Hints:
alpha/beta; 23 strands; 439 residues; single chain; disordered N terminus
Amino acid sequence: MTTPxxxxxxxxxxxxxxxxxxxxxxxxxxxxxxxxxxxxLDRAKQSVPAYVDTLADIDPAxxxxxxxxxxxxxxxxxxxxxxxxxxxxxxxxxxxxTSALARIFASPxxxxxxxxxxxxxxxxxxxxxxxGIRPGDIVQNCFSYHFTPAGSMFETGAHALGCAVxxxxxGNTELQARALxxxxxxxxxxxxxxxxxxxxxVDELGLDASSLxxxxxxxxxxxxxxxxxxxxxxxxxxxxxxxxDIGLIAYETLGPDxxxxxxxxxxxxxxxxxxxxxxxxxxxxxxxxLVVTTLNPDYPLIRFATGDMSAVLDAPSPCGRxxxxxxxxxxxxxxxTKVKGLFVHPSQVAQVQRRHPELARVRLxxxxxxxxxxxxxxxxxxxxGAQDTALAGNIAATLQSVTxxxxxxxxxxxxxxxxxxxxxxxxxxYGARSDDAGS
Length: 439
């Protein structure tokens, strides 16, 4: 990794660039990225099983620009479980032997994600630096360390910056509050709403959280009211967007007038916005599906269709970084959604229904404002008279077992759920949202 330059950092509220790549001429960046892509394509078509056939007729040296990239086939995130089932464990898509990896994660789906032995493999140090996190800081890492990669993503990035990490994980709110009081971390990383829960517990217990001045969040919506709450507590809170497969994709930055609009794309990925259901790029500013190519030799995801919606901001960032900016997470191209940092798939809702034959139709409604996400499974019975007092609780237990998330169950009449095939209704309203980090 390039050694970061840190001009005027000690005591500075406006972080400078992480390295010289962030401020290079866009044409220089594009040329360097496509030279690296040609090398990656050549290696992939020779030694990565999944690409041997799909890239057989592609001349890597001819993929010199975005038009050439757009001619390559998509790899859809939604197809990974089936790919990996046919060719375990990674669908034949890795360039490094499984036995040579550092860690293997399991995300909902299930989808297995590799982590190789490289410093800052997920490239999150760049986003943490933009938040103002610095060498010598103590970071309370409240991302999950259980199966999903988010905890490791941000721990390895913090270590690359020279920070000490409290591997706090999720839950244990009172212990989180006491660790914040006793250990004096300067920074929090985790989902957007959990820090508020910790700070409220700090207040309840009469503890001190004054050491905390920076927060970096991902994996859920950072609503304006929530950001303002943190600002009122003296905590500058920025967000990033990424996926469990790729790692960091884009991140917020600070400028003289505060937090800049949109998210700056990471230096080690190439981002396209395409028309949903196709691989065709859309004009700048038009909302479409986010497609990412990662320049990662260990896991070369080429034209990876995330299923997330976003749009390009067609103007440079006021912070001085020159890479493309995107608006952030703007919903899903399919019904899959994210709740508290975890993906919930329509197939999981269908699995709940299959386990309860008395159900005629179900719809998972996800709601929430400035507080935590809330899941409500609306369930209609085949026989309206068959409801008993234990049924809703039993269904709720199944929902938690299948999704690893708590939700409530509401029994509704059959005509209350339209016969339109919709399994998930995301009823939240969003501004920019930082999604998938690590999920």
